[in-house]
Task: structure prediction
Amino acid sequence: MNKKLNILFGIVSLIVVIAAIIFSYLIENVLPYSPIRPYKITVNDIKERYPGVENPGSLGLSYEIVNVITADSIELKGWFIHSKTKPAKGTIILLHGIANTKYAMLSLSKVLTSNGFNCVLYDSRANGESGGLNCTFGFYEKRDVSIVLDSVVKRFPDSSPFAVYGNSLGAAVAIQSLAVEKRLRCGVVESPFATLRETVHEYFRRMFYLPIYSIPNAALVRTEKIAGFLVDDVRPEESAKNISQSVLVVHGLKDEHINWKHGYRVYKNIASHSKIWMPIDEGNHNNLAAIGGQQYLDSLVSFFNQHIQD
Result:
């Protein structure tokens, strides 16, 4: 009996040691990079996802290339798409989600330019055609928004007033930008997270089925050193307390990536009295426009029409 117990104890001890080695390796070499090094969409990916679309001109949109150098010398590659009517009502910056590209914003830009708005689309740092190794979920990206605005104001002096739209990562960046960039008159945010640390915890739990947050927390210490930012400074729900502009917060109630409660917490904290919470009953993380249909697009246009002049 004792021999069997010793064997069992030895097996369990070996499993524990192996697991410790694996997680030690993950904490040092894999997990710290996982959130900040998104997959960069390639030219071939774009051709497969958007067949026949080389640029906004392929969709009959009038555009100019707008490439911007950030404060830390990263080139962001983007487009300024002109309104189909003159004069334009204003200009809306469209911010895509993580591991995505400005091409994902083209369909919405068609709607907005047809309704009298210029649009600015660009690949966020570490995404698409833009430079940069690390995505920082708004820590540096909110500053990038201001630099893009500076460039647009200089090149297109009649482009104001300005607004912002963001999806997922772009929504988190938009919230943080609205808090510090008051040239943005209003914003629409789809599926924002409330805090970066919480979001990393939730992704870790879904990936490994382990509600043990000491592991991702240890990895995030290294993440901060690699990317040069503080994870706990990325808290859109806290940034919301400094927003005085009008904001529409949209979230799918069946979002499988970022629970709708994140979006609601952001909404509740927005300091502005001019704010709207729009839950989409059957919406998940990626289908809000498809579920909402034309009525949803009309509501976005109506919001910008009403608030971009605020």
The chain has a mean pLDDT of 93. The chain has one domain: 41-212+231-307. Residues 41-212+231-307 form a domain with the Rossmann fold fold (CATH 3.40.50.1820). The first strand starts at residue 63 and ends at 69.
